[in-house]
Design a protein that fits this description.
OB fold (Dihydrolipoamide Acetyltransferase, E2P); alpha+beta; four-stranded antiparallel sheet
Length: about 140
């Protein structure tokens, strides 16, 4: 129920590049790749250890390291609180926006990278790519 411009630009750029490689469209209007992408071969979801109210401390695109605090789930009165910490290096690629969670609900989706600098390189590449990739009207591409 939210428009995420970074996600829309990233998805559109990737789709256009794939269509160009497949010969479906010409190079006009297709954003050029400005940084080498980092491939993440594994990802994991961090789930709610208990039901309650979710407070998040990290967002989509943030780099994480083992032990880093991602969020906390507490009871409605704030008496009992359970922290959610990262278990590996990676990039947060998805996050729940719902403040009320049930036990087992998916909260954070982390794409794992072998080293933190891999994740940093990926985020720098995404930032560089998105600065020059405007959202197009279909008539501008075809």
């Amino acid at each position: 129920m939210r428009f995420d411009e970074l996600a829309a630009r990233s998805g559109l750029s990737g789709i256009l590049r794939v269509m160009q490689v497949l010969g479906m469209i010409g190079p006009k209007g297709v954003p050029r790749l400005r940084a080498r992408p980092v491939t993440c071969t594994r990802s994991s979801w961090y789930r709610a250890p208990a039901g309650g109210l979710l407070r998040t401390y990290r967002g989509i695109g943030d780099l994480v390291e083992p032990g880093m605090l991602l969020g906390a789930v507490s009871d409605p009165f704030g008496v009992a609180e359970v922290e959610i910490t990262a278990q590996s290096n990676g990039i947060i690629v998805g996050r729940s926006n719902m403040p009320v969670v049930n036990e087992g609900d998916a909260l954070f989706h982390v794409a794992e990278t072998p080293k933190v600098w891999h994740a940093e390189a990926a985020m720098e590449g995404v930032a560089a790519q998105m600065e020059a990739a405007p959202l197009f009207d279909e008539d501008e591409i075809i």
